[in-house]
Amino acid sequence: MMGARATGTFKVSFEQLDSGDPAIGRMRVSKEISGDLQATAIAQMLSVGSTVPDSAGYVAIDQVTGTLHGRTGTFVLQHSGLMSRGDGTLSVVVVPDSGTGELAGLRGTFAIDIVDGEHRYTFDYDLDAA
Length: 130
Prior knowledge:
Layout: E1 4-17, E2 24-35, E3 37-49, E4 56-68, E5 71-84, E6 87-94, E7 106-115, E8 118-127
Antiparallel strand pairs: 1-2, 1-8, 2-3, 3-4, 4-5, 5-6, 7-8
């Protein structure tokens, strides 16, 4: 476990983009994040399904701008999600050395839960001196 934890909620909106390949979905994902992390985020997401129901995968790069427990800056999250016949795994981690401003040296994992239609996050992180 990391040294600090931030929790809260976020609202998300999706914009379909052309991937140039009908088998691959591409989206722009915008987030308004509330709680211990007050931020906006813009992601580019690629996804693909399979011929088996409930099997798919996605990757995304998410640029986050805001304030984390009073420290202001930006950082990047990398998403990797898989669904295998309804059994899902998701990894969302801070890209190493992507933190700027007062968030330089940030590292951590960002867990996402959707409960009753509400997106919730738990962000376990460390902030090392840059």
